[in-house]
Structures are given as C-alpha cells and as structure tokens.
Amino acid sequence: MKVGRQLKRRRVELQMSQRDVADLTELSIGFLSQLENDQVSPSLSSLDRIARALRTPIYELLSSDERNPVVKTSDRRTQELGSTGVHVELLTNFPNWQMLPFFRTLGVGEEYKAVRIERAREEWMYVVSGTMEIHLSDHNRYELGPGDSIHFESSRLEEVNSIGVEPLELICMMTPPA
User: Which DSSP letter does residue 76 get?
Assistant: First the structure.
C-alpha cells in the first residue's frame, strides 16, 4: 500500500515535522520517512494512528486519486442517489469521500417522498432558488426560500416539495455518501 505522497502532503499542509507526527503516533522518524518514500507499507494500526495525528480519514491517505478538485458547471456528472431513482448532479469529483455535495432541481409542484438510505446520517440543504417545503419526522414542516438552509439527521426526512412559482434548485450535502 503506497501512502507516502498523501501522508507527506497532509503533514506539510498542517505544518508538522516528522518529529511531530512521530511524537503523536509513537512511531519512529525513520519509519515515517520510509513511509513517505513508499519504501515500506504500514499496518492498519499504524495507518490509523497516523491518520488521527494528521486529523484526516484513513481513506484520504489511501487515495492516490489525482482527479481535479474543481468541478465546472459544464462538467458535472449525473448520478443516481443510492437506489432511490433520484438523479442528482455531483458537485465533486470524489463521490466516495466522507461528504457528498450535489445539486438537485425539482420542478414547480414536484414532490419527493423520502426513501431511506442506510448509510446516510446527516443532510444539509441550501435553497438556491424557488420555495421548498420540507417535512421531517414528528410532524415538523418547514418552508425555506432562496438563501435559507436546513441541517438534519437523514432518518428524519419524510418529504420535500417544490411549492413556489419557479423550479426549486437545491445544493445538498449528505454524509456519508449513499
């Protein structure tokens, strides 16, 4: 497993020395140097300690992903959200990371009845345009307009409706991704 480049990138990003990481992980500087030069592979236990010291998820250290971090409007990919039948525009080139940002449009009068997504734990929505009526469990109903946002536990979502006179455009985030 090659983690050297990602490990060094994150360490430098945090302005940490190898000594700093060694002190936090109880691993030797020599071992960390070998890791950064991909001369050795870490155990999962060592990798977990390093990820904690660098305040980053393990998957980020394991990612050799060189995809562009920028997503231009014209390059957005469409993907089904889990197996819900709902298609969204991805706002990221990293759909398997911890957070999934996406863009969604609902036509005037369109309603969406929530489909439970096992992995999803949190959702956040921001209304770009239109008017949204959102129903959460316990009979909570909220009306949001442009510039408004809502953050909730995914299991509470029951329904989203476009109730305005123009299409509802949302920027949403889900963690972890479906």
Answer: P
